[in-house]
Every structure is written in structure tokens, then in C-alpha cells.
Write a structure and sequence with these properties.
Shape: globular
Number of strands: 4
Oligomer: single chain
Radius of gyration: 12 Å
Strand order of the largest sheet: 1-2-3-4
Largest sheet: 4 strands, antiparallel
Distance between the termini: 33 Å
């Protein structure tokens, strides 16, 4: 089992980021602390339309970074 710690960038955010002590260089996040997405592998393809909209709203820098992904 992975040793994951969930945290939010801001208290009002809906998205949980994952601090995983077992890996370095992975950016993971979750909407419910159950399903965890890998930012570089899963965005935006594995997100629902609603999840993508929420992610983009809370993370405009990442949205812009991945603007070439459709």
C-alpha cells in the first residue's frame, strides 16, 4: 500500500493533492481521496468533463501548461 498524504493548496479548494513519500517527481491529485490521478499521465484524458473543468478552474497554471492536450 502506498503511503499517501492528501492536502489542499488552499482550504477552499475541491482538489486534493497527494504527497507520496515513496516516489519522487510524481504529481498526483484526487477529487475524493479514493481515485488518484497522475497529472502527467492522466490529464485530461481520464478526467470527466466536470472534473476537468474543476481542475482547470483551480489550477490555471497547469491548464495553460497542458494547453496543447485535447
Amino acid at each position: 500500500m502506498r503511503n499517501r498524504k492528501f492536502y489542499k493548496e488552499h482550504p477552499y479548494d475541491k482538489i486534493w493533492w497527494v504527497d507520496n513519500e515513496e516516489t519522487l517527481g510524481e504529481w498526483e491529485f484526487s477529487f475524493d481521496k479514493k481515485t488518484v490521478f497522475n497529472l502527467f499521465q492522466d490529464y485530461p484524458h481520464k478526467l470527466s468533463k466536470e472534473q476537468k473543468e474543476l481542475f482547470d478552474r483551480e489550477n490555471p497554471d497547469w491548464r495553460d501548461f497542458f494547453s496543447d492536450r485535447k
